[in-house]
Amino acid sequence: MTSLDMQLLLSEQKYANQEKYWLQKVSGMNFTGYGGVFRSAQTDPYQYGQAEITITGELWEKVLHLGNHSSLSLYFVLLTSLKALIFRYSGNEDSIVAAPVFKQKRTSDTLNDLLILRDVITGDMSFRELLLQIRATALQAVEHQDYPYERILELVRQAEGQAPEEYAIPFVCRLKDLHDEFPVNIARHALTFSFERRGEDELKGTITYNAMRFDAEVIKRYASHFVNTLTYAVSNITAQLNEIPLASQEEWALLDEYNQTESSYVSEKMIHQLFEEQVEKTPNATALVFGEATLTYLQLNERANRLAHKLIASGVTRERIVGIMIPRSMEMIVGMLAILKAGGAYLPIDPEYPSERIDYFLHDSGVNLLLTRPELSKNLHKDVKVIDPFDEHVEQPKHNPACTGSSANLAYVIYTSGSTGQPKGVMIEHRSVVNFFHGMRKSIDFSAGMTILALTTYCFDISVLELLLPLSCGLRVVIADAAQSLKPDLLAERIRQERVDLLQMTPSRMQLLLHSESARTCLSDVVTIMLGGEPVSAALVKQLSALSNARLFNMYGPTETTIWSTVQPLSPDRPVTIGKPIANTQVHVIDTHMNRQPIGVAGELCIVGDGLARGYLHRADLTAERFIANPFRPGQIMYRTGDLVRLLDNGELEHLGRVDDQVKIRGYRIELGEIEHQLIANDSVQEAVVLAKESEEGNKFMCAYLVADQAITPQQIREYLLTKLPEYMIPSYFVKVDAMPLTPNGKINRKQLLTIDHERDLEPNYTEPENQVEQKLVSIWSEVLNIDPKKIGIHNSFFDLGGNSMLFVQMLAMVEIEYPGKILATDLFMNPTIKQIARVIVNQEVTIQANVTLKRNPLPSEFFSHGQHEGEALSYSASLQGRELARLKGVTKNRGVEQEDVLLAAYYYLFSEVMSKADITLYTMLGQTDSLQQFTLIFDEIESIEELVQWVHQRSERAPQQEFPIKAIHDVSQEEDRYSVALLMYKKSLLLANVNLLQHFDIFLEINEHHDRTDVTFEYNGSRMNQMAMQQLVKGYLMIIQLLVDELEKAGTSPEKG
Q1: How many other C-beta atoms can be found within 10 angstroms of the C-beta atom of residue 935?
Q2: Buried b / exposed e across 508-538, counting CB within 10 Å, b at 16+?
Q3: Cα dihedral across residues 668, 674, 676, 682: positive or negative
Q4: Secondary structure of residue 365 in the 3-state scheme
Q5: Residue 368 contacts residue 385 (beta carbons within 8 Å)
Q6: Is 949 a residue whose pLDDT tops 70?
Q7: Are 29 and 196 in contact (CB under 8 A)?
Q8: How far is the CA of 927 from the CAs of 602, 839, 900, 963, 987, in angstroms?
Q9: Could you please report the per-residue DSSP string of 461-472?
Q10: Do the Cβ atoms of 665 and 702 come closer than 8 Å?
Q11: Considering only CA atoms, which of 923, 901, 898, 921 is closest in space to residue 911?
């Protein structure tokens, strides 16, 4: 029959009525959720496998009795048992099984081989209720069985907007007495159950499957669970489905055996006591290395003690939370130890976090004492006492403070992403950390004298393994600096130079290290490599095994169960799992009704044991939701991880994903709901959905789908989120949609969103490369970002094209290979477009003149002093924030200029007011790292504020300029003039060279831009300039900024520039 004939036939009224039935029946059909056993990966070739089921004796008699000795009723009993089993395996309430058409009802009009039997199942249904429902479903389907199965699937595809999963219907159930011979197709159906009566004494069943895809033991166990389900159900027909035990007593006993992890440890000890005991053992051994500096165990202990005594004098005692916000340094560890010694609990805060997030941490935790540098605290919005850990506090005693606490006291609080839009503070006690130390040392060699690299930010709890654990057992801790954490080559050199024995990294960071050819050799002498924080691929294990003889470990654990809870040795000839629980830790795999899942069945991982956190700070509701009573052992607490796992035959756990909206990206745990919450808080965004996607290379990234105002751009959304969230939580892509696609039941269709090209909203202003350097950079970006080079314009930002910090490091390494020594990480951050990066590279290749004369500007004599602060750099600082900053950003956006343009225009205007000179020469460092530009502005040619700002914006085109690296500044000669000054305006982030600016400039304005504020600092030579006059100059500058903003607001939005 041709397709046209089929179409004409189906147009008849009889088939039209049946089509209407099936359209309603398959609406919103869910093909997913059949448990971890059934994977969606394609496998080729196919090889048939079979497992047998035999039902005889007393069980067979009960089955026959329940089915009234009728083949039809018998089939319904078997189908109900199968559907109950599928439900218990998957938790999926949308139950779909296919059955061959019933041969007694087949007619010449039947154009079909298979029926779809769809039921909605809940765990509180009884087996009897489900049996009656399935009977009604099947009889209805038989009444409409003439309509072709393939046409029904086509209706599903049309309704859902996409093809179903590989197995349209994973399961088929057939009874020979009722159904015609059915050609089993393992390419279409995961499992086919065929039953046949053997007289009155026996029922024989056969499960047919693809043996290339499913392990025989898995299917054998599935058959056993089917029999167990049937056995219990026919004797307990009113039992709820979630009460039916799947496993045998022997299987439950095996699960209990896997959880025998009890191990004795010093549970009464506190973290710092273990460190102090190690100090007694090895006082002169090196404890810390940072750069060229070192501290012995004794020196570190004495510094931590002095700071601890200072904290105690400031009121720190048991259970008090103390914030610590400092860059990577020895003082970071000194501060952590000091807080613990004082009895307090430390709260780590990254100084690079948006100020709004920092303020939230301080307010939510109740912290009123903060260890930080004074300059890092000046923009906090909470009144806190600041103690500088870089001050050695020599006035304090150096002996160990008296220990008044216990191991049940709080050790630290670490904030993790929260689904409600706000981070949540996890409270960890000393005892949990000490047990973690014990568990790690039982699994991995942490021998005294070994060297470990501390690479992870201390705001991530796995840093405890790199910092506090090794100090409790005599290791040498090498702290990687910021540059080493960014550049694989520098990191590799540090690993080689320090002969590092132990490395802990996320798989993403390890991939970056391996991306650099020169970095690969650094692993040859490493003894142990620990990978964790995100899934480890088999390919990475093979790659590492080929490069190093190190022992490889996969580490798993949420913050709420103290760092790592399971460990697995890795080798290239074994599947990658997350392993077995560490000492004094038990794991359970549960279904949605809190039943333990048998071996091989997917469920939520729950963790019990000494590693459990106290709970969430000030979040009793959330604590009660996630930390629940252990139903398998009274008196214990169990933590629900939200991770989907299954237990394997050997007692190891296989990680299958998440049961909620939480994802792991580059090792960071992220609640997608928190990002969505911040997005819809923006007035320009009406709806937002954030989803995790995966590139062809297996790299995970986030994509935000938005219903938003037309005017707002992806770059503006990204900049907005950076004021609310840390960089690692910013989606790589922002895609606008006219409306969110919906499923038939009115929910957002996330599957359909995933099919939308995430690259479609990349900035459309494509400009092709203009030279060889730009072409090479486009090629590098295309490889790193995995996007079409034709979508990479030379004016596109790396980050707006989907770049993130990990991809940035990879890109930096590739640029360094092509143009060694020509560009720094800071150059790339400050010049994020192809055009800008190419300009930096080209300028570095230009020969610089040896001598440059700085032009100076005359100032009235009252601005000069008589050397009362000889050789001293003095400064005045102010911040633009809140409404002031919002107005500044508003006028710069309307005028098509940058913040720095207005600030530089105000700088010019300031000196035009105090000088009796028409032309003013300034030096700037606003574009490239360590590169000075000279500009001279003739004020007689400027007629308005608007024209001044536009001149500054277009200064490179309008004015002759001279450019030279600040490295050559030692060759610069100055004109001798007592009452003249050299003026500079620069961005703090661009000055990396070790240069004393006071030797060359008398007054310089430092600009430091943050997401939510802009700091301006006037610095001047105290040996030449009058302090009072300079103070007035600063006040005048701030007034001029406001004057410029007022005038630009009055002028309105400028016409578009051609």
Answers
A1: 20
A2: bbbbbbbebeebbebbeebbbbbbbbbbbee
A3: negative
A4: helix
A5: yes
A6: yes
A7: no
A8: 54, 10, 10, 11, 9
A9: TTHHHHHHHHHT
A10: yes
A11: 921
Q: Which residues are CB-contacts of 696 (< 8 A; sequence separation ≥ 6)?
A: 786
Would you state the pLDDT for residue 341?
Answer: 97
Q: How far is 866 from 599, CA to CA, in rounded Å?
A: 85
| pLDDT surpasses 70 at 974 | no
Question: What's the pLDDT score for residue 165?
Answer: 46
pLDDT above 70: percentage of residues in the chain: 86
Give the range with max mean pLDDT: 108-117, 299-308, 978-987. Answer: 299-308
Question: Alpha carbon of 445 to those of 108, 299, 550, 689, 838: distances in Å?
Answer: 74, 26, 12, 44, 47
User: Helices 271-281 and 430-443, interaxial angle, to 10°?
Assistant: 50
266-284+297-429 against 664-734: fold identical:
no
Asked whether the beta carbons of 130 and 241 are under 8 A apart, the reply is yes
Give the list of residues 6+ apart from residue 240 with CB closer than 8 angstroms, or none. Answer: 123, 124, 125, 126
Q: Which of 3.40.50.720, 3.50.50.60, 3.30.300.30, 3.10.270.10 would CATH assign to domain 664-734? A: 3.30.300.30
User: What predicted TM-score, i.e. pTM, was given to this entire model?
Assistant: 0.70
Mean pLDDT for 376-394 is 84
Strands (E), 836-894: 853-854, 857-858, 873-881
Coil, strand or helix: which one is 492? helix
What average pLDDT score do residues 213-221 get? 84
Distance separating alpha carbons of residues 829 and 79, to the nearest angstrom: 62
15 band by pLDDT with thresholds 50, 70 and 90 = confident
Non-local (6+) Cβ contacts of 303 within 8 A are 295, 334, 392
Under the banding of pLDDT at 50, 70 and 90, the label for residue 43 is very low
Fold for the domain defined by 853-1051: Chloramphenicol Acetyltransferase (3.30.559)
pLDDT for residue 278: 98
The more confidently predicted of residues 726 and 391 is 391
Give the contacts of 257 (CB within 8 A, at least 6 positions apart). none
List the structure tokens of 382: 């909470």
Rounded Cα gap, residues 401 and 962, in angstroms: 60
Summarised one tens digit per residue, pLDDT across range 917-931 is: 778 889 998 877 777
13 three-state secondary structure: helix
Mutual orientation of helices 149-160 and 13-26 as an angle, nearest 10°? 50
CA distance 579 to 455: 24
- Distance CA(300)–CA(510), nearest Å, equals 30
**pLDDT of res. 868:** 52
Give 810-848 pLDDT, tens digit per residue.
888 888 888 877 777 666 666 778 887 887 777 665 434
- For residues 707 and 715, the answer to whether their CB atoms sit within 8 Å is no
DSSP-assigned letter for residue 944:
S
At residue 536 the predicted structure's pLDDT band, cuts being 50, 70 and 90, is confident
How far is the CA of 734 from the CAs of 419, 700, 785, in angstroms?
Answer: 20, 15, 15
Tokens of 465: 């393994």
DSSP 105-156: G--TT---SEEEEEEE--TTSBHHHHHHHHHHHHHHHHHTTTS-HHHHHHHH
778-818 pLDDT tens trace:
999 888 888 888 878 887 778 767 777 677 778 888 888 88
Q: Which CATH number fits domain 21-250: 3.20.20.70, 3.30.559.30, 3.30.70.100, 3.90.650.10?
A: 3.30.559.30
What is the distance between the alpha carbons of residues 100 and 112, in angstroms, rounded to a whole number? 9
Instruction: Note the CATH number of domain 266-284+297-429.
Output: 3.40.50.980
